[in-house]
Design a protein that fits this description.
Shape: globular
Number of strands: 14
Structural class: alpha/beta
Bound molecules: nicotinamide-adenine-dinucleotide
Distance between the termini: 24 Å
Strand order of the largest sheet: 2-1-3-12-11-4-5-10-8-9
Largest sheet: 10 strands, mixed
Length: about 350
């Protein structure tokens, strides 16, 4: 039976980097006989231009029907003046919410060939391979009530709410334990249980879930300490599981340990491991159309897609190995280039990965 992937190139560099990821998908499909079927549509600004909405109903239907979604990136100055409800980013938030993509996986892997690209000392980050599992559809970014009110003394006061239900914590904790099981069997749950009621429930539920995973070593860390440990000794971590806001901040911090946003893939999964896969970076309007963007984050997102949604670990490994081989050969896009290496554009980098496969 064929597996359908909805491909949404998006805006800015999105179409350039997705074109290379599609080349890799087609090559691995032909090589490993995966039976992939690709369907193309638009999201973000490109969707607004085509359909008058950043996420058209028919696109959402295609996303529901597909087995996985591959996304480039959305946004750009062309659409910045639009009504907030029509802006490209709204399409992205809506597709995540509509598909119930509550589990956001953001690996921070430093290819040894790029150890000097980090702002941290090479020995602190060389060989870094951590995975942050972030809860994506709950917590303070969605909690009600929220707003601004006027106090009796006439001063305005703004407020947000940080709610987590047991079931929301349980399902993301399970994703964390499952991922740890596939990797180094170490899970660190990050919270602020010394202060926040939501974190106290979070910790209690994570402890409950842990009883079903005796093979995974669980630890807990307060988020302020986790932020410090991530730059002090990041290699102590294997998998981190945390809430929406803490995960937002820590995953950006972790991604910069690797020094190269153009290298970092991500996955957002629902309860059945159906997922949307995209690079961590945005649409980079400053370099769009120049053919110089790094396509490797999107190509590595394809590897995650095959691993997590299609259970094709061998094909995923092959893509990751091919990326390593290309870096070994000295090819670099401008964002990761330094003296002594060969500077190549987006298409040449994609072609090199295809050739290495
Ligand atoms: P950005 O990630 O697009 O760019 C930040 C910097 O990194 C830029 O200098 C850019 O040139 C560089 N960069 C990013 N990806 C690169 C790649 N693959 N190769 C080489 N260099 C790369 O972030 P931004 O500039 O803050 O945002 C630009 C637009 O992207 C905005 O409209 C923003 O809303 C949107 N955005 C979208 C997503 C998404 O689609 N998931 C995420 C973040 C930002």
């Amino acid at each position: 039976m064929s597996k359908q992937i909805l491909v949404l190139p998006g805006d800015g560099i999105g179409p350039e980097i997705v074109a290379e990821a599609v080349k890799v998908l087609q090559r691995i499909d032909a090589r490993d006989g995966l039976g992939l079927e690709l369907v193309f549509d638009e999201l973000g600004g490109a969707a607004y231009d085509k359909y008058g909405s950043p996420l058209a109903d028919e696109t959402l239907e295609r996303a529901r029907a597909a087995d996985a979604v591959l996304l480039g990136a959305v946004g750009g100055p062309k659409w910045d003046a639009l009504d907030p409800a029509l802006r490209p980013e709204r399409g992205l938030l809506k597709i995540r919410a509509e598909l119930g993509l509550f589990g956001n996986l953001r690996p921070a892997i430093l290819y040894p060939q790029l150890a000097n690209a980090s702002t941290l000392k090479a020995e602190v980050v060389a060989g870094l391979d951590i995975l942050i599992v972030r809860e994506l559809t709950g917590g303070i970014y969605f909690g009600q009530p929220r707003g601004t009110r006027t106090l009796d003394n006439g001063e305005r006061q703004a407020y947000d709410t940080l709610p987590y239900s047991e079931s929301e914590v349980r399902r993301i904790a399970k994703v964390g334990f499952d991922m740890a099981r596939l990797r180094g069997k170490k899970l660190c749950s990050v919270d602020k249980a010394n202060v926040l009621a939501s974190s106290q429930l979070w910790r209690a539920i994570v402890e409950q879930v842990a009883t079903a995973y005796p093979d995974v070593a669980l630890s807990h860390m307060y988020v302020d300490n986790a932020a410090m440990q991530l730059v002090r000794a990041p290699k102590q971590f294997d998998v981190i599981v945390t809430d929406n806001m803490f995960g937002d901040i820590l995953s950006d911090q972790a991604s910069m340990l690797t020094g190269s946003i153009g290298m970092l893939p991500s996955a957002s999964l629902d309860a059945n491991n159906k997922g949307m896969y995209e690079p961590c970076h945005g649409s980079a309007p400053d370099i769009a159309g120049q053919g110089i963007a790094n396509p490797l984050a999107t190509i590595l997102s394809v590897a995650m897609l095959l691993r997590y949604s299609f259970a094709q670990a061998d094909s995923a490994d092959a893509i990751e190995r091919a990326v390593g081989k290309v870096l070994d050969s000295g090819l670099r896009t401008a964002d990761i280039w330094s003296d002594g290496f060969t500077k190549v554009g987006t298409a040449a980098m994609g072609d090199a990965v295809v050739a290495a496969l």
